[in-house]
Automatic annotation (TrEMBL):
Family membership: Belongs to the KptA/TPT1 family.
Species annotation: Nocardiopsis codii
Gene that produces this protein: kptA
EC number: 2.7.1.-
Stated name of the protein: Probable RNA 2'-phosphotransferase
Keywords: NAD, Transferase
Pfam family, one: PTS_2-RNA
InterPro entries tied to this protein: Ptrans_KptA/Tpt1, RNA_2'-PTrans_C, RNA_2'-PTrans_KptA, RNA_2'-PTrans_N
NCBIfam families (UniProt xref): PRK00819.1-4
Enzyme class: transferase
HAMAP family in the record: KptA
Highest rank taxon of the organism: Bacteria
């Protein structure tokens, strides 16, 4: 597949596997999995041509490893980012002392007042390093990066989970755990 085709297929899969399984006539199981055969048939029905081989290519080449196949290759799910109700089963774990969150200036007043909220997703997404957070913020405009005192939060009883691709999830980040917002140099 060309890079453009891979990106297009990845966007469609993210929409189906995170937000709108009915778009491909699917239902996800409680842990977010869909059958690969059902997904391929559903994609055909939705006018998106995807073979088993190209699906495997999307999973393997995806820049953020957004999707995972089950060990036997018969099922697929998104690793995080859902708006539909799923329990991904990531175990609580101990975060590093500091994590990072990238956003944009227009959200600063709300974030400074009420902290980070998951908005339309299940959880707040935090990055291991500031550069990744900068890229997450840059999706929306000039990025601004917060450090999050994850170690202190964890000690205070907040539950953190790491996804299969290195994103850290937490229900919310109260403002007292946020560092001063930093505008990284481009
Ligand atoms: C902001 C992408 C107002 C938050 C990325 C963000 C990531 C608030 C936006 C992953 C707020 C939500 C997640 C508050 C947070 N008031 N705005 N209290 N608290 N916000 O997309 O973290 O491509 O749901 O800063 O790379 O940007 O989908 O979250 O700007 O890894 O795989 O509200 O999504 O990965 O936006 O991105 P999002 P995010 P994928």
């Amino acid at each position: 597949m060309t890079t453009g085709e891979l990106v297009c297929a990845s966007r469609f899969l993210a929409r189906v596997l995170r937000h709108d399984p009915a778009l491909a006539g699917l239902r996800l199981d409680p842990q977010g999995w869909a059958g690969v055969d059902d997904l391929l048939a559903g994609c055909r029905g939705a006018g998106v041509r995807l073979t088993r081989a190209s699906l495997a290519e999307v999973v393997e080449t995806n820049d953020k490893r957004r999707f995972a196949l089950s060990p036997d290759g018969t099922r697929i799910r998104a690793q995080q980012g859902h708006s539909v109700d799923v329990d991904l089963g990531w175990e609580p774990s101990v975060p590093p002392a500091l994590l990072h969150h990238g956003t944009v200036g227009r959200f600063l007043p709300a974030i400074t007042a009420e902290g980070l909220r998951p908005m339309t997703r299940h959880d707040v997404h935090l990055s291991r390093d500031a550069e990744t957070a900068r890229r997450v913020g840059a999706r929306r405009g000039a990025p601004v990066v917060f450090t999050v005192a994850a170690g202190r939060m964890h000690a205070d009883g907040h539950v953190f989970r790491a996804t299969g691709n290195g994103v850290w999830l937490v229900a919310a980040v109260p403002p007292e755990y946020l560092g001063a917002p930093v505008t990284p140099s481009p």
